[in-house]
């Protein structure tokens, strides 16, 4: 009993009432035959025969034989339908339990495949949506970054222009201040030279005190001394402003440098040392138009004049 339970579980329900159905089918066929018989015979009547006789005399004469009457056409009855035997319904096929299980497994696999396909489509739709959102977000960030970069460029440009204007104004002020300092230094050097000239006269060449900026030296001689020392001047650092160094130089009659010392530093030690090194490397100064080298001599060494 336990072995037939799975079979009956998956089998189609048993069709009951087979005998009742068979009886109803036979009854229906019988009624149909009766109706057909009544329909065929309800209007049929018997054929009546008629005779005619003629009398010519009292002597009986044998009458001629009457003409044969036409035989009535036989009534052809329609063939009665032969009732068909009702065939019993075929017995339901009892499916195999293994086949049912296999079909159920196949249906289950198909359903799983459909679900997987649906899940893949949903996953693909989600990925496309996320990708689109990421692209939109990236585009928005790039736009914001471009706007920020544009604002920063504008701000940097404004700051650079402002700084350039500030530097230009500072440079103008510094140039004006340096020019004023140069003018004052020139005036002081001239006054010092005039004072020395008034005190000691114009004696020997070695006892004469002069300056490159004094009126006693020609412009060509001053230019020759500056150009000669400039060949030995080296300064690798960045020049800030216009440093000015005053150096007193003593020479022999042939222009050989005997000593040098800074009488007024520029405030930039590296610039002062570069000026002294240039004079040391020169070793001697060129002679003037009279074949002499004025000594002592004050050399004013400025970055602005060196750059000319």
From TrEMBL:
Biased composition (Pro residues): 67-81
Chain spans, region Disordered: 66-94, 156-216
Gene3D superfamilies found in the cross-reference section: 3.30.1150.10
Biased composition regions of type Basic and acidic residues, renumbered to the chain: 156-178, 185-194
Biased composition annotated in UniProt, kind: Low complexity: 204-216
Domain of life assignment: Bacteria
Name assigned to this protein: Protein TolA
Organism from which the protein derives: Rhodoferax lacus
